[in-house]
Design brief:
Chain A: Pfam families: ABC_tran. Chain A is an alpha/beta fold. Chain A is built from 10 helices and 12 strands. Chain B is 70% helix and 4% strand. Classes of the chains: A alpha/beta, B mainly alpha. At the A-B interface, helix 3, strand 8, helix 4 and helix 6 of A face helix 10 and helix 11 of B. The complex binds adenosine-5'-diphosphate and magnesium ion.
């Protein structure tokens, strides 16, 4: 590996394993996502795509291997071949580098859209409320929700809720955005508006890891597609290669079902 | 379509005002259905109520003159004050304690889990009357309370009688007993919150204490308040057991004392019942406002959802 590669790499996973009790959900995943790169993960249900993302922002602790963001080991300090777990405070500080958007939005139902967006800046980063409001309103505008800041999540459609969730993640100014099937819970006519917002982030040069079943969208935005099955990356490459003419039989079988 | 939607359409305030059918929408003139059965039942109930009321008002056995003599007597009013105070202070102590018990039980530390489990097991499993009697005997059982280094020198020591007064014993008994029930209610409330809420909070870098105070507690409140209101009314009535301490300033003791002196138990039971109803009503008003506050974001109309 070239010595300057640490400066261009954003997320780096090095033979990552994850066990849920006895169940071996990730079986040695190696993955490199460069800064500004869009990495899309596809694969059948239960193949470990969500687990992969959740290991990046430490919602799950890994049982083997290393996860690095911008060259910094996540969750542990490594000394003399031993791993020392970081304190909860240090872990949450590391998590602020990543933003996550969930399949089921997970907005805070007792807060308005704007309050959802400024919750992190104000109560995690200690930003002044007036400034956070200004930024929050601008972010809502950016995701096409100007004027809806006072609505509670229950008063918004699924597509609008997911866009608030994206604004909430962006408000923390993350270096990497993680999207776990952001449109899977939406009615078909609402998928487009969320994909538009994600596309605008792509144009803005955001680094992203995205799990999706929208193969057409993957082809359009991805720099790098990985196909996962049974806890391993079966095949990876540029979208034209992997989605156009996959080498592995498992990939071909999956694509023939979803395309 | 709700009435607001229709108004919006008529005003042409809808975003897509160009769409057809928004100009001359006429509401249907709906003639209310008639409900003769409901009226019949209502009239019957009113007749029965009037007769029962008359039967009580004119019944000499109720001794209404005695009722009105003592309803606002200073002795009774002081009892009302103490009963309200015992209820409110006991709840004010048991709510944070119960919350701490829940947090201890959700903690990874098995010792904290064990202590919380034992606390609930003990206070839920023993009668409140017995607990109150023991609190009353505290000063006899432990004459001095001292702060000391374990197996080392004593740092501070006071006479128990100055600390565990009857009022303190009554409040301690009522509130510790109540924590056991409240913590079970709270636990159910927190369990009802989707795990995704904690994950979303973690994902924006929140630490555990912040997640509890900003995300979990405000959401659990909505579920917790109605049964906690019930518990508060329950504690209000449990205050009549503080005689076990013995604490003798509460409402039930006051009215019983008068009844024993006048040999007229019925009007004084009515006095007590009136005041308990009055306090319950005050508590219900408080509950209404709390529910409204913590219900925000829920049970709201979906306006203009596209
Ligand atoms: N918290 C958990 N406990 C136990 N098993 C889990 C848990 N989360 C996921 N799994 C299992 O791990 C595997 C991978 O899950 P997941 O990463 O959610 O797959 P995908 O997102 O690709 O559908 C599945 O078999 C799932 O049942
Ligand atoms: Mg998944």
């Amino acid at each position: 590996m070239m010595s300057n590669s640490t400066h261009t790499l954003s997320v780096e996973m090095d033979s990552v394993h994850k066990h849920y009790g006895q169940y071996h959900a990730l079986r040695g995943v190696d993955l490199k996502v460069a800064k500004g790169e869009i990495c899309v993960a596809i694969g059948p249900s239960g193949s470990g795509k969500s687990t992969l993302l959740r290991c990046v922002n430490q919602l799950e602790s890994i049982s083997g291997g290393r996860v690095k963001i911008n060259g910094e080991l996540q969750g542990y300090r490594e000394r003399d071949g031993s791993f020392y777990p970081l304190s909860p405070g240090q872990v949450s500080r590391q998590r602020r580098r990543t933003g996550m958007v969930f399949q089921r939005f997970n907005l805070f139902p007792h807060m308005t859209a704007l309050q959802n967006v400024i919750e992190g800046p104000v109560h995690v980063n200690g930003e002044r409320k007036a400034e956070a409001r200004q930024r929050g309103l601008a972010l809502l505008d950016r995701v096409g929700l100007a004027g809806l800041g006072d609505r509670y999540p229950a008063q918004l459609s699924g597509g609008q809720q997911q866009r608030v969730a994206i604004a909430r993640a962006l408000a923390m100014e993350p270096e990497v955005m993680l999207f776990d099937e952001p449109t899977s819970a939406l009615d078909p006519e609402l998928v487009g508006e969320v994909l538009e917002v994600i596309k605008s982030l792509v144009s803005a040069g955001m680094t992203m890891m995205l799990v999706t079943h929208e193969i057409g969208f993957a082809r359009e935005v991805a720099d790098h597609v990985i196909f996962m099955d049974e806890g391993v990356i079966v095949e990876e490459g540029r979208p034209s290669e992997l989605l156009g003419n996959a080498r592995e039989q498992r990939t071909q079988a999956f694509l023939s079902k979803v395309l | 379509m709700t009435k607001d939607d229709i108004n919006e359409l008529q005003d042409g305030r809808r975003p897509n005002a160009a769409a057809p059918c928004n100009v001359d929408v006429v509401q249907n003139r709906v003639v209310q259905r008639r409900h003769p059965g409901r009226w019949l039942v209502a009239i019957l109930i009113v007749i029965i109520a009037l007769q029962a009321g008359q039967g009580m008002a004119n019944n000499p056995n109720f001794h209404w003159d005695t009722y009105f003599t003592y309803l606002f007597s200073p002795f009774v009013l002081r009892g009302v004050g103490w009963t309200l105070l015992l209820t409110v202070v006991s709840m004010a102590i048991s709510i944070p304690l119960a919350l701490a018990l829940v947090i201890m039980r959700e903690n990874e530390n098995p010792i904290l889990q064990g202590v919380a489990w034992f606390w609930v097991w003990f206070f839920r499993g023993t009668p409140i009357y017995t607990q109150l009697a023991f609190w009353g005997l505290f000063a006899v059982l432990f004459p001095r309370i001292s702060v000391a280094v374990p197996f080392g020198p004593e740092l501070l020591s006071v006479d128990s009688r100055w600390v565990v007064t009857p009022a303190v014993a009554a409040i301690a008994g009522l509130s510790f007993n109540e924590t056991a029930y409240l913590s079970e209610i709270f636990r159910a409330g927190f369990r009802a919150i989707d795990r995704g809420q904690t994950e979303a909070a973690q994902a924006i870098g929140m630490t555990k204490p912040k997640i509890w105070t900003r995300i979990l507690i405000p959401q659990a409140m909505r579920i917790i308040i109605p049964p906690t209101g019930n518990e508060t009314i329950g504690v209000l009535k449990l205050t009549s057991l503080v005689l076990a301490v013995p604490f003798t300033l509460d409402l039930t003791f006051a009215t019983n004392a008068i009844a024993n002196r006048t040999y007229l138990p019925v009007p004084l039971l009515l006095v007590a019942a009136t005041w308990y109803l009055f306090i319950t009503s005050i508590l219900m008003v408080g509950q209404y406002y709390l529910e409204r506050h913590y219900g925000r974001g829920h049970d709201m109309p979906k306006e203009g959802v596209r």
